[in-house]
Amino acid sequence: MKQLFKASIPEAKLEAVERALKTAFNTAIAESVELLSGGLSSALVYKITVNGKIYLLKVILQTDTFNDPNRHYICMNLAAEAGVAPHVYYASAEDAISITDFIEAQPFPRQFTPDNLIKVVSVVRAIHAAPNFPTLVNYLDGIDGFIENFKASKLLPESATEEHFRYYAEIQKAYPCYDPDLVPSHNDLNPRNLLFDGQKIWAVDWEAAFQNDRYVDLAIVANNFVKTEAQEEIYLKAYFGDSLDEYKRARFFIMQQVCLMCYAMLFMRFATVLQSQDTVIDECMETVRQQEFFTQIANGTVSLSSPEGQFLYAKVLLNEALYNMKTPRFAEAIDRMNA
User: Fold this and answer.
1) Per-residue pLDDT tens over the stretch 11-55
2) Residue 206: C-alpha distances to residues 32, 145, 194, 316 (Å)
3) Of 184, 160, 161, 164, the residue nearest 172 (C-alpha)
4) 59: which strand partners?
5) What is the pLDDT of residues 80-117, one digit of tens each?
6) Is 77 exposed, middle or buried (0-12, 13-18, 19+ CB in 10 A)?
7) pTM of the full structure
8) Is 287 helix (H, G, I), strand (E, B) or coil?
9) Alpha-carbon span 81 to 88, nearest angstrom
10) Which of 131, 275, 293, 325 would disulfide-bridge 167, Cβ 3.0–4.6 Å?
């Protein structure tokens, strides 16, 4: 096993990986090992074969309050028990290593049919119905911290984002951010973390999971997959049923902008590496709309693996939120929150 892993796994983790295999499968032998790529975290992810079956081995390299393996694995295990995450064979917070079923994902179109939207909603509902996850932070307070860090970074001049944050301040005043109605939440249900095996949708990568506002998961999924008013109505109706009303529609729309701002701040943080390079930072805020940017990613014109691509995506997200916050619907939603 060590020969298989030596080329890609840190020497300091070899013993822990061997221990994981022995605990999960009573063997330290992996017939094949393939290092996967595609995520934005620093974790190492492997497709491994043990006793003729394929599994996913994940080795976390960096831990902190947010990237906490203990909370991560509690949430992942609860989600697996609820049938929305792959089965967990091993998870050690001490070693920061997990082994789960490997999902052989098939393409799942962004332009969802009504049936596909309902399938995704069923995943969100199942997550929210699971036993309580550990708590971490108030979501909007956490975003406020990201915003302050971005402003302190001076990555862009204050004038470049003044209008964005002026509108966002209306959300900070109006949104019920301390509503005690919290649910188990994945908090990062983007297309990379929803895998379709041909029959079922699985949610993976539970690092960001904690007990949170239910509208966060709903908004993140919608920001990536819901494209029309008709789709939005199907989507919200599938989640809320007959309890769907104008207040819920308004709160959902506002949270969509909150989540766009959150991801923008996260990608701005990734892009701060540009400041330490011999790079001229593009301060222009003109970008394409989010859907066009998704198309550019799909055809390889832009890569989110580069700091430049991450910086551009952050600006796209900021502009998408600004576009939405300047609409009459936003003003109406804020009024409803203030009522």
Assistant:
1) 888 899 999 999 999 998 888 889 987 566 778 999 999 999 999
2) 25, 21, 11, 25
3) 164
4) 44, 97
5) 999 999 999 999 999 999 999 999 998 776 556 888 88
6) middle
7) 0.94
8) coil
9) 9
10) 325
